[in-house]
Design a protein that fits this description.
With 354 residues, the protein is an alpha/beta fold. It has two domains: 18-37 and 260-353, Aspartate Aminotransferase, domain 1 (Alpha-Beta Complex); 40-257, 3-Layer(aba) Sandwich (Aspartate Aminotransferase, domain 2), CATH 3.40.640.10. The chain has eleven helices and twelve strands. It has helices spanning 40-45, 48-52, 63-72, 85-97, 113-121, 163-172, 226-239, 246-257, 259-282, 304-313, 337-353; strands at residues 27-29, 80-83, 104-107, 125-128, 147-151, 178-181, 202-207, 220-224, 286-287, 294-298, 316-318, 330-333. A seven-stranded mixed β-sheet has the order 2-8-7-6-5-3-4, sandwiched between helices. Strand 5, helix 6 (163-172) and strand 6 (178-181) form a beta-alpha-beta unit. Bound molecules: pyridoxal-5'-phosphate. Pyridoxal-5'-phosphate (PLP) is lined by residues 85-87, 111, 151, 155, 181, 183, 207, 209, 215, 220. Residues 85-87, 111, 151, 155, 181, 183, 207, 209, 215, 220 line the site of pyridoxal-5'-phosphate.
């Protein structure tokens, strides 16, 4: 830290992204990317002509992109806004709906960025412990003055609540914004988007990074009432008006319109997830009922840190969190069938060696 860095942030602990090693070719099962390429329709629009227009700014209103998203989710364009990854949209939401008097309530085991953003933005955190089995007890979110953040499915547990269960929180907290982070909802969960017509306090955030095969394009979106979306745009235009670049806008429209490819990819992940879970269970592993594109898993006998380290030495990266209640668990991205066969072979070998 330089001597110029502001005192207010001297405790800031930045989020640690999953390793993105540039040295060696790993089988990467640690950051929940898709194993499949972007939609061919997205690739087609990234033409030489499109690249040649990079001398011009992108559309700050992202009109065409927002129209495509709104159409897909049967919403008005005024109910949608986009950002440089859903990370940016979520951070805008915290800037808009939290401050020193309006804390953010979220689970003690969830996406690490929530805590980091609170600390960056001077927002108090209310961390609500998950139950013994890692499930979220939504009753604990009822009442109170905090803005609520629910990752659904949650990461890294993969556990998912139904819209009917989340509706209880929306109903009880009419004067608080409830943000549902649906980064993984397409892999078998049920989205809260249909609740938008009844709840002006609901903000649903999704991303192209996991289920739409465009993590590197950096594109996420929020859906909510016109008023909430106008609030987010007010933040966006006070921070970074051209937050989504031209190429990402084009790819985002094409990918959103390619429903068939989207469905094929997610169905394949769901099938492979179920196959992988079965195989791990056969090796004596314990797993949650993940509705995401990752498994949250634990060996019957080998410590999580040892598995993580040994797999890494053998060219396979998975995610290990050195934190209470997580140290024996691994978060393993569901890749292609072929990739999971390689993972299983490595795990079986490890179990045999132990
Ligand atoms: C991956 C992820 C995000 C952010 O993804 P972006 O790449 O920024 O769109 C947000 N929330 C959760 C829970 C995630 O796992």
């Amino acid at each position: 830290m330089s001597r110029f860095f502001v005192k207010r942030l001297d405790q800031l602990a930045p989020y640690t992204p999953g390793e993105q090693p540039q040295d060696q070719q790993y089988l990467k099962l640690n950051t929940n990317e898709s194993p499949f390429p972007p939609s061919s329709k997205a690739l087609e629009v990234l033409s030489r002509e499109a690249v040649c227009q990079l001398n011009l700014y992108s559309d700050p209103d992202c009109k065409a992109l927002i129209a495509a998203i709104a159409k897909r989710y049967s919403l008005e364009p005024e109910q949608v806004t986009v950002g440089n990854g859903s990370d940016e949209v979520l951070a805008f939401a915290l800037r808009a709906f939290c401050d020193e008097n309006t804390p953010l309530a979220y689970a003690d085991i969830t996406y690490g960025c929530y805590k980091t953003w609170c600390s960056l933005l001077g927002v108090p955190s209310i961390q609500i412990p998950l139950e013994e089995d890692y499930s979220i007890n939504l009753k604990k979110y009822v009442g109170g003055q905090a803005t609520v953040m629910i990752a659904n499915p949650n990461a890294p547990t993969g556990l998912c609540k139904t819209p009917a269960e989340i509706e209880v929180v929306l109903q009880a907290n009419r004067d608080q914004v409830v943000i549902v982070d649906e980064a993984y909802i397409d892999f078998g969960g049920e989205s809260c988007v249909p609740l938008l017509k009844n709840y002006e306090n609901l903000l649903v955030v999704q991303t192209y990074s996991k289920s739409r095969n465009l993590a590197g394009a950096r594109l996420g979106f929020a859906m909510g009432s016109q008023e909430l979306i106008a609030d987010l745009n007010r933040i966006k235009f006070s921070f970074n008006p051209y937050n989504v670049n031209r190429l990402t806008c084009l790819a985002g429209i094409a990918a959103m319109e390619d429903e068939a490819y989207f469905q094929r990819c997610i169905q394949e992940i769901i099938q492979t997830r179920s196959w992988t879970a079965q195989q791990l269970k056969a090796l004596g592993w314990t797993l949650t009922d993940s509705k995401a594109n990752f498994l949250f898993a634990q060996s019957g006998k080998i410590p999580g840190g040892v598995i993580y380290q040994t797999l890494k030495e053998r060219g396979i990266l998975v995610r290990h969190f050195n934190a209470p209640r997580l140290e024996n668990r691994l978060r393993i991205t569901v890749g292609s069938q072929n990739q999971m066969e390689r993972l299983l072979a490595a795990v079986a070998r490890l179990e045999a060696e132990w």
